[in-house]
Amino acid sequence: MTTTGMRAPICAVGLRKSYGTREVLAGIDAQVVAGETIALVGPSGGGKSTFLRCLNGLHAFDAGTLEVAGLSIAPATHVSSPSLRPLRARVGMVFQGFHLFPHLSVLENICLGPLHVKRESRDRVEARALELLARVGLRDRALAQPSMLSGGQQQRVAIARALAMQPEVLLLDEPTSALDPEMRGEVLAVLRDLAHDGNTTMLIVTHEMGFARAVASRVWVFDGGKLVEDGPPDEVCGNPRSERARAFFGAAPS
Ligand SMILES: Nc1ncnc2c1ncn2[C@@H]1O[C@H](COP(=O)(O)OP(=O)(O)OP(=O)(O)O)[C@@H](O)[C@H]1O
Ligand SMILES: [Mg+2]
């Protein structure tokens, strides 16, 4: 992996990936400008999670070029390659299941990465963690164990943990789909605030079309391993060009 002079936080050209004979990413060309919030939508199996995982080196891709957060990732880079470490420090990831460490307090979960990966001082990291907890509405739960929190609260901690690394790019894969409607609202409100601030470049896989329309700068539709639509939310959701996207939005709850 090499450092590039590219300005775009995410730039994929001709990105391809197959599992055996099944092509899962069939040549993705996509670029994200700093501060954008992209909503990535589309039918199940379209390649959304695979694409996201390629962006932070959790999956290797087979061909094409990929630059993320100023770093160029080569095809077939092994997921455990030390060359991916700088990438992981610059790209945050939030999953559907929150993946918090159950034996650590909320505060320790948030501080872990900055302390051990970035080797920042504890005072500084804790101060930032408490600010982030306040931001996601959980300042008073710093010393709780994750199991004492609701799903929505745990997901907000997971977002604070990702932000504690001060990532250039934040990737979120269906961050609200494991939550009931009320908790979804709490988490979406946090994401909406982040998007409005414009300080974090975000790529969010979501089925929340109302959120995508209201918050995203652009909506991408993935289908069959291809980026079949890319444009402003009203255009893509309201008047999609491709037959496939028309069928998808016709079926998606708004
Ligand atoms: N480890 C794997 N081995 C083989 N095939 C895989 C693997 N991971 C994903 N796939 C296949 O790749 C395709 C894309 O999967 P992916 O998880 O990226 O889709 P998705 O768009 O995120 O779908 P969903 O909306 O259901 O989460 C699917 O056909 C899936 O079966
Ligand atoms: Mg997925």
How would you portray this structure in words?
- The protein is an alpha/beta fold.
- The protein has one domain: P-loop containing nucleotide triphosphate hydrolases (Rossmann fold), CATH 3.40.50.
- 36% of the residues lie in helices and 25% in strands.
- It has 9 helices and 11 strands.
- It has helices spanning 48-55, 85-90, 106-116, 122-135, 151-164, 181-197, 209-215, 233-238, 243-251; strands at 2-3, 10-19, 22-32, 37-41, 63-68, 71-73, 91-94, 169-173, 201-205, 218-223, 226-231.
- Strands 7-8-9-4-10-11 form a 6-stranded mixed beta sheet, sandwiched between helices. The protein has a 5-stranded antiparallel beta sheet with strand order 1-6-5-2-3, covered by helices on one side.
- Strand 5 and strand 6 (71-73) form a beta hairpin.
- Helix 3 crosses helix 4 and helix 3 (106-116) packs parallel to helix 5 (151-164).
- The longest helix has 17 residues, at 181-197.
- The mean pLDDT is 93.
- Adenosine-5'-triphosphate (ATP) binds next to helix 1.
How would you concisely characterize the structure shown here?
The protein has 254 residues and is an alpha/beta fold. It is built from nine helices and eleven strands. β5 and β6 form a beta hairpin.
What is the topology?
Blueprint (H helix, E strand, L loop, with lengths): L1 E2 L6 E10 L2 E11 L4 E5 L6 H8 L7 E6 L2 E3 L11 H6 E4 L11 H11 L5 H14 L15 H14 L4 E5 L7 H17 L3 E5 L3 H7 L2 E6 L2 E6 L1 H6 L4 H9 L3
Parallel strand pairs: 4-9, 4-10, 7-8, 8-9
Antiparallel strand pairs: 1-6, 2-3, 2-5, 5-6, 10-11
Helix pairs in contact: 3-4, 3-5, 4-5, 5-6
